[in-house]
Amino acid sequence: MTIDEIRVRIDELDRLLLKIFNERADLALQIGEIKKELGLAVYDPAREKRIFEAMQAANPGPLDNGAIVRMFERVIDESRRLERIRTKGL
């Protein structure tokens, strides 16, 4: 493959990631609404720990598990921020 061909594939994957990130955020907002109705906290450290463990167990590489955790920490942090904004009506 040429550099240009590889970059085209990266661009395709970036668009797919964008779609997935937004779909995940939408689902997080739905969970946020349910949590609000039930009076539950937005932050669920046990759930986050399970996500990190599951992603590390499923990780085929080449990213190491530390990188996987950092990436998912960021995704989850942004979902949590969005939940807080939306559930407070800001």
TrEMBL record:
Database matches in Pfam families: CM_2
Keywords: Isomerase
Entry's EC annotation: 5.4.99.5
Gene Ontology molecular function: any one: chorismate mutase activity
SMART domains for this protein: CM_2
SUPFAM superfamilies tied to this protein: Chorismate mutase II (SSF48600)
Signal peptide: none
Domain Chorismate mutase: 1-87
GO biological process: chorismate metabolic process; salicylic acid biosynthetic process
InterPro entries: Chorismate_II_sf, Chorismate_mutase-related, CM_dom_sf, CM_II_prokaryot
Enzyme kind, highest EC tier: isomerase
Protein name, as recorded: chorismate mutase
Organism of this sequence: Trichloromonas acetexigens
